[in-house]
Write a structure and sequence with these properties.
By secondary structure, the chain is an alpha+beta fold. The chain is built from two helices and 13 strands; from the N terminus they run ααβββββββββββββ.
Length: about 220
């Protein structure tokens, strides 16, 4: 019995050696250096994910506007009829931006404003509608700038298009979905966002109204 007690006391007194402490500190230092060196890249990856989810969310929000319809007023306070709502993308000219718009002239695509007069959409003021009895330009409800999330972000490509630009237009009441410049019999496009590390995320949109993040 006494022998067991002495053994326990001896083990208790052995403790942690200086070498073990140095090894643990060295391992922690290595992990710390790895994390610090990769931190900017990690932040760029997070920014890419956030921008991708925001694009998908903005598409769904615009689709909801196509279901419900939102009142629009020009600078004179006159109600402007919106035939639909959509998102315009051009990855050659607007590589870091896309535009959420109200289709005022019923051409189911984005027609830029010729002037800087105000309109009111959902109670908010926007520089988007000309004051006129016949509106020939659409209302840019919001211009989304990817670089506000991170300067590393841009629109890389959009699949199944015959040009570098498209309007994804939601026409109420269903809403019906029209994708401008979609090629042939294709029913869907994939919008690819990337960062300067060449990491990429994709959002799929089809003519049935399905919106999903595919990568």
């Amino acid at each position: 019995m006494n022998r067991n007690l002495k053994l326990k006391i001896r083990n208790f007194r052995s403790g942690i050696t200086l070498v073990e402490i140095v090894v643990v500190i060295a391992i922690m230092a290595i992990f710390f250096v790895i994390v610090i060196s990769d931190f900017p890249k990690i932040m760029r990856q997070f920014a890419l994910s956030r921008a991708t989810y925001k694009l998908a969310q903005d598409l769904r929000r615009t689709e909801d506007m196509g279901f419900s319809g939102v009142s629009i007023l020009d600078s004179a306070g006159t109600t402007v009829g919106a035939y639909g709502y959509g998102i315009f993308l051009d990855y050659s000219l607007l590589k870091t931006q896309y535009i959420i718009y109200a289709d005022v002239n019923n051409d189911q695509t984005y027609s830029p404003k010729p002037s800087e007069n105000n309109c009111v959409v959902g109670g908010n003021n926007y520089n988007c509608c000309e004051q006129s009895t016949v509106h020939t330009a659409d209302c840019a409800i919001e211009v989304v700038d990817l670089t506000k999330e991170s300067s590393s972000l841009s629109i890389d490509s959009i699949t199944n298009l015959t040009s570098n630009s498209t309007s994804i237009n939601f026409l109420p009441p269903n809403p019906n979905v029209k994708i401008l410049n979609i090629s042939g019999t294709n029913k869907e496009i994939e919008i690819t966002l990337k960062n300067t590390d060449d990491a990429k995320r994709k959002v799929l949109v089809n003519t049935s109204g399905l919106i999903s993040i595919t990568q």
